Amino acid sequence: MKKFLFSAPLKERTLFLLSWASPVIIVFLWETYCRFGLIGPEILPPPSTVLLAAITLTKNGALLPDLGVSLTRAATGWCIGASIGFLLGLIVGFSSIAKAVLDRSIQMLRAVPFLALLPLVIVWFGVGEGQKIFLVALGVSFPVYINTTLGIRQLDPKLLEMGSTQRLTTYETIRRIIFPGALPSILMGVRYSLATAWLALVIAETIGASAGIGFLALDAREFLQTDVIVLTIVIYAVIGVCADAVARFLERRLLAWHPNYAPKGC
Amino acid sequence: MEIPGGEQQTPAVVAVQGLVRTYGPKVVLNKLHLRIRKGEFVALLGESGCGKTTLLRVLAGLDPIQGGTIQTSGTLAVVFQEHRLLPWENLWRNVSLGLRCGPAKEKAAKALEEVGLGDRLDDWPRNLSGGQAQRVAIARALVQEPALLLLDEPFASLDALTRIKMHKLLLSLIAAHKPGVLLVTHDVLESIVLADRILIMRDGCIVKEYVVNDYADKRTVQVDVFEALGFAGGGSPY
Ligand SMILES: Nc1ncnc2c1ncn2[C@@H]1O[C@H](COP(=O)(O)OP(=O)(O)O)[C@@H](O)[C@H]1O
Ligand SMILES: [Mg+2]
Fold first, then answer.
1. Do the beta carbons of residue B209 and residue B45 sit within 8 Å?
2. How far is B76 from chain A (nearest CA, A)?
3. How many A from CA of B81 to the centre of ligand 1?
4. Measured on CA atoms in the order B165, B166, B171, B172, is the torsion positive or negative?
5. How far is Cα of residue B223 from the mean position of the Cα atoms in its chain?
6. Number of domains in chain A
7. Is residue A87 part of a domain?
8. Average pLDDT, rounded, for chain B
9. How far is the C-alpha of B238 from the C-alpha of B234, rounded, in Å?
10. Of A82, A247, B32, B98, which is least surrounded by CB within 10 A?
11. Is residue A141 part of a domain?
12. B51 Cα to the center of ligand 1, angstroms
């Protein structure tokens, strides 16, 4: 019994360490291959050089402001897109009239890969901030919209009936049944939208920017600074991972009741 | 037609006259009459598909009716066959659902205490057994202090032993709160153990009624009820 109690967390820790082992090994191999000249620095600089580039750029004050600019764009675009998607999702989820009026058009728009709209967006907004924020917002709004309507539509009607026999007001029904019931789906949309936000930003910034991580990459391309280019890729990756971690954290916090997200042994 | 249970002197918690409910061309409730007095425990028996759930849903205001009248006095609470607890709320929040006046948590805690789950206030519904979940559902209904409690086969999915415990619990709760009760069941013994009056439903009407206390020996009620359900002779299908 005692052994069992202690072995459970230990096993989890082992799995956790194991999950980090392969990335570490890959970075290690990458470094050794570069050191022994198997990969030329103009193709792929070793991780240590990339790290050095990060330190240099941070010290001379080039990196952080650009990072700030990119994050601000992503955050602004995400907030706008998520609000629009969520509101439309709520309206369409609740009202069958709104669904009849809006849903088909939105689904048709969604069928267009939003990056295909890029030339049009550039014509509308130029290559300024507007174009980037618009593109992010556009990419974000669809997954949030779809998962919000889905969450509301998948609600168990039996629970709504129960709410009505308990004489809940409309507000109480939304707050205690509809919203929490749709939340797993909504959060899935949020998680997905963070990924699209990031993708949209990378594309938008590569089209033309005078600041931001994408600008850094473009600038580095001009001078064949592969270390900076790789650094920007790593930064995009790290921020993507962080965004996903935030979404997972939200899921764990808000969906503690859900068997799929329940803390172990509870 | 005489209204079953129509002893007019005691006030009724629900009085139903000429109730009609149809699904398309199918008439499910056909000019049904029903009257349940204050504090009375009525069991409704009938074969599957005869319209018991439909009657209960109509009384609960979940479905519209196509004819007749329903008069109710006081609050009404429902326990369904499934517990219908909100998986995202802990037990006391589930029980307090719909409570508006007074200290909700204390009331919920007291109700959970009554059903023997006073130590599980902050637990999630998913950690409950079927019987425990149904007890929470009963607590959630009773905390509303209903004048009429509607129960739709609430114990049907429980094992036999749990069901017997639930019968005892329900009787003690009813004795404490004294709501009128309409219990839909397909279990003849359950109806005899629990109810004051047993109604037999067929073809969308109540066709027979038995007052349990009229019988000196409860086994004779059983014989009559089984006969009314179509198992003549043996008194029991077994
Ligand atoms: N939503 C529905 N649409 C059409 N017919 C229904 C619906 N619900 C119930 N019925 C019909 O009404 C009849 C009574 O059903 P119900 O009240 O559930 O019976 P039970 O006595 O077993 O609870 C059944 O014949 C069933 O087919
Ligand atoms: Mg039924």
1. no
2. 8
3. 15
4. positive
5. 23
6. 1
7. yes
8. 90
9. 8
10. A247
11. yes
12. 6
